[in-house]
Structure formats: structure tokens, C-alpha cells
What we know:
Blueprint: H1 2-39, E1 57-58, E2 65-71, H2 76-91, E3 96-102, H3 112-123, H4 128-137, H5 144-153, H6 158-167, H7 171-183, E4 191-194, E5 197-200, H8 205-217
Helix pairs in contact: 3-4, 3-5, 3-6
Amino acid sequence: MATAHVYRWHILIVLGFFLVVTMIFFAFASRDEEKIQITEPERIMLSKPTITFIDPSKGPAEAAVTIVEFGDFACEPCAKMASTLASLQQKFPEDVRVVWKDFPNESLHTQATPAALAARCAGAQDAFWPYHDELFLRQSQQNDQTYLAIAQDLQLDTRAFQECYASQEPLPIVKKTFNEGLALDLKSTPTLFIGEERFTGATSLADLEAIVRSLISAR
């Protein structure tokens, strides 16, 4: 009888051991699944930009050619591109539309995001493009005082402008277009999207004219 009693206790101990091991296994398995869900989210990649009402545009909505630019107001090549695109629209006033997307490179330019915010605040008063042009003209002097001075020179409501800028109200929009650029695997600014093609860096006026003429003739 004593032997049978000891035998039963041995069985209970073994069963208890396997129960504990099983519980530990499932606890760790569940924890690993949570880690995967939290630390490894899916990254959505895009093939072309999406134009919405948050994106400032200049030129006819029905233009034959739409150029989407991802730019940085503190980027010197972007300043040159602004001049090039302005000349292009002068040559094709009815056929070219330009759309702006913010892609501030904070690692290189401390004023990239503040300048983007200032331009967006001007945009709230329907003055994005004049402000855009002035930011590039005064690129070497970009700071809080310059942003206010441009608003004053453009005769904006400076109180509304300062409130917008101080609160960083447009920051979610700037972040949205920046993240869109990341999803498009942008490497540098300026980057232009024309139709299904992308053009990175300095693109000459002559090259852009040839592209526009080709797209117009293909319609």
C-alpha cells in the first residue's frame, strides 16, 4: 500500500512538472507574438504621390501636365528649382500645374520644418505661393524674425500668422507629406514627379520643356 501511495505521488509530481512547463511555453509564445505585432509593423510603399486639398498647387487644375515637387525651403537646389518651375509655367501658362509637397530635411537644415510651417501659415491666408517665393529669395536669412517680416511685407494678418506659427498648427500636414515622401522612397530634394516618372536633383529648364512638349503632344 505504501508503495502504491508513493507511486501516485510520483505521477502527480511528474504531471505537475509538465503542466508548469506547458504554461511557461505558452506564456513566452504569446509574448513573442505581441513583440512581432508591436515592433515590426508593415511599411506601406507607394509608387506615385497622391494630390489632395492639403497640397498647394499653382496653375490650371485641368492642365495637361502636373508636376509634383517634394521640396525643402532650406535646400539650395530647391531654390533653383523654384526659379526653373516659375520659368516653365511662364512658357506654358495653360498647360503646366505645379503641386508642392513638404519634405523637410531636418538632419541637414535646422530651419527646414520652421520654414515649412511658416509657408503653410501663409497658405491659411491664401498666400502660400508668394510666401514660397520669398522664402527662397531670403533663404540665407531664414529664422523666426524673417518669417514674420515676410508676412508683414505680404500684408498678411500678422497676428493670425504668429498664432498659427507659434502653435505649429500645420505640423500634422507637414509630417503627412514628409511620410508620403518616405513611402515613395525619396532620397533627396528636390524630387519631381511628372506623370509616371520621377526626376531627382537639378533638372534643367530645357529638359523640362522637352518633357512637357512630349506629354502635350501625346494627349
